[in-house]
Amino acid sequence: MIEFKLPWLGADMDQGELLEWMIKPGDRVRRGQVIAVVDTSKAAVEVESWQEGIVHALLAQPGDMLPVGAPMAQFLADGEVPPAVSVPVIAAPPAIVPTAGTLKPADTAGSAAIPAGALGDRKKISPAARRRAAELQIDPQTIELGSGPHGAVTIEDVERAAARARVPMAPAKKAPGSPADRAAEMRKTIAGAMSRSKREIPHYYLAQPIPLQRMTLWLSEQNALRSMDRRLLMAVPLLKAIAMTLEAFPELNGFYRDGEFKPSPQVQIGVAISLRHGGLIAPALHDIGAKSLDQLMQALGDLVQRTRAGSLRSSELSDATVTVTNLGEQGAEAVYGVISPPQVALVGLGRVSVRPWVVDGAVVALPVVTATLSADHRVSDGHRGARFLTALAEALQHPEKL
Amino acid sequence: MTYREALRQGLREALLRDPRVFLMGEDVGRYGGTYAVSKGLLEEFGPDRIRDAPLSELGFVGAGIGAALGGMRPLVEVMTVNFSLLALDPIINTAALLRHMSGGQFSVPMVIRMSTGAGRQLAAQHSHSFEGWYAHIPGIKIVTPATVEDARGMLWAAIQDPDPVLLFEHAQLYNLEGEVPEDSAVDIRSARIRRSGKDLSLITYGGCLWKTIEAAEQLAAEGISAEVIDLRVLRPLDTDTVLASVRRTRRAVVIDEGWRSGSLAAEVMARIMEQAFYELDAPVARVCSQEVPIPYARHLEEAALPQTAGIVAVAREVLGR
Hints:
Number of helices of chain B: 13
Structural class of chain B: alpha/beta
Strand order of the largest sheet of chain B: 2-1-3-4-6-5-10
Number of strands of chain A: 20
Number of strands of chain B: 12
Distance between the termini of chain A: 46 Å
Radius of gyration of chain B: 19 Å
Radius of gyration of chain A: 24 Å
Largest sheet of chain B: 7 strands, mixed
Structural class of chain A: alpha+beta
Largest interface: A-B, 16 and 12 residues
Helix content of chain B: 25-40%
Order of helices and strands of chain B: HEHEHEHHHEHEHEEEHEEHEHEHH
Order of helices and strands of chain A: EEEEEEEEHHHHEHHEEEEEEHEHEEEEH
Oligomer: heterodimer
Strand content of chain A: 15-25%
Shape of chain B: globular
Largest sheet of chain A: 7 strands, mixed
Distance between the termini of chain B: 39 Å
Shape of chain A: globular
């Protein structure tokens, strides 16, 4: 019996709401097949299966709020016989989290009893504090440590938090709501991830202005040969150059987890995409190195469109190994980004603008971009970071090689 | 005036005001009472009204019930609460139940006084606190005077009650000094706030009252304002006073010399939980005796009983300090 568990769909996700099943018992599931749609606070995500088999039972219902790691479905491997006592759909309920809490995925191995740890892990909030929080419309779960016995949240903590924040409480459970709700929710998750980043990651920052004269000329030549709808944006060769350069700098590409850095064999660049109602997501643009610029242009357009429509794939949300944030034409000159944990680096690109540049002892006007690197000092040092930016600058001088 | 003297004045007052009142018990007459409460009363009121009883709690408590049914107002003294176990049958099966079982035709207007509690190195058979047990029984009232004023006034209020009243005198209180106000008015219905405070409610009765007040004073020195409630009457419990206090302070510690399991403290906590759960800002806590027979050795006896330091520590914990 294969247990399919809710995958982790991004740094700031700890639970998700099952919106829809795309499979039913008896279906054959292939690797990579979309089997369910799950709403994280950021987007409705199509969850792909990484396992194969015949669907035996669905353990969660649409509408259930599931912690990451909760069993969602059971598959039978090829040739596997269903167990004699078939597990009814409801018999082993997944750990359902009523509200954003700190419940760990519960042990659902058949026992109906509440797992011993579950209640102990529950946040301690005094009844009076709970009621006061409701009156003041603040979420007591957001108070990190209470001043009461054993860290319990007390009335006083609630009143202090209310005075400090005056932040309206997010409804405990809401239907995929209005854009305003979604924006507030997203703001909260961004706040969580970015606070964690700045709390845990010792950032260092480097900047490198890079002349783009050759790139600009090459790009206009290329685009002159293309129809309007196939023209390349400057972002495409920039992304490709970054991906290719990163292959030589494994210490900037991978995940830092549990005190240990694991470089990633592939470069999967998370592209920061801002959303219309505010907030941003950085889904992964897959296999950049292997794609031609035309393929990349198409993939980027598709990714932006699907991001803004809220229909991303689970792998796109979870497997970016590094982030690129590109301010584009409307942007500022340089951006010093906040690393998205558990990644260890972020490459920022400012606006491409015409600036004075010294060539052979004379000042000339050239299009220039300032590339920045925010990197995790636990994993790499400024020296290597600087080498990366230099190598990137060099790569961008040879557009024909991209 | 001492607590002992106040009790004696209460007895005299009752004997003087109501000719139906008489005192009966072991050594209450010639010996003047084990705790010298009735000293001198035999000389003043004579052997008909101050009666030494044989060493049979079952016998003289039963005789007291008979006298009450016959129209008298007996005051029965049982030397200690441990010995009252010999008289559980007349107290519960007869005195407490008779009004109910006779359809209201009979009542038992008697008062049984007994000493309770530990702290005087009298060992396990003389040191227990069973008033919480008695408070379990419908049909009797349980009063626990903890101040000189209550020692002086509760007896007369108890004598006027038409039903049996058990009055528990904590053995460590007899030498307590205190004043009785001129306008003293003592009832056997209500709890009293002995010290006002706003941060937590310390709820207690009897011998633990003074340890609790001392704890409140120590807490005040730390900037913690503790309210001290003296329950005074364990049955019927004045839940309103307790709840009003807890609703103000939102935290409560119950201090009870009884053993923790099934204690009166447990009942008080349960009522707070039933009626003020949403007002609470911390779990209700309690300080009770260790669940051992009260030891003879002084240091062990002290360790077994609620003490001021323990009350202070639990109060701090409830406040998260």
